[in-house]
Write a structure and sequence with these properties.
Helix content: 25-40%
Strand content: 25-35%
Number of helices: 4
Structural class: alpha/beta
Largest sheet: 6 strands, mixed
CATH class: Alpha Beta
CATH topology: Rossmann fold
Number of domains: 1
Order of helices and strands: EEEHEHEHEH
CATH architecture: 3-Layer(aba) Sandwich
Strand order of the largest sheet: 2-3-1-4-5-6
Number of strands: 6
Radius of gyration: 14 Å
Length: 139
Amino acid sequence: MLPTLFITYRQVPGLSPGLNRVVDKRVVVYCAGLTDETKEEDVPGAVLGIRKAITTELHLPAFPRAVVYLGKKGGEDMKSMVRELLPREGTRILACVCGFQEKQVFAMGYGFQITPCECDGGGPTMARLINEAVTQFRT
């Protein structure tokens, strides 16, 4: 398993908002901690915080794989960050079903994998993928 970076502007159960090094430097999760009550206008600031953290606190080339939640509120800010910063072949978009077709066109246009997920920040799917990565590194 390759080192993997997980990114979401939402909460991830069991993790604190910010940068979480789950398995040394091989499984890293950045969650901004936004909730269902978050206003859409607050998302760009959270995405800017994600961008700043992952470009200043991490060596991005060390993460050939990335999993990114793209929900209804993430919009163009998340798409821009993904396009500019993450590896083409190694990036998987977790996309909620709200506007899934548009997200699928985006992902396919840039060579990203796409997986449908829940509209709550991809909670169960994101948690499952993080747990799989952790398990593979610990065995």
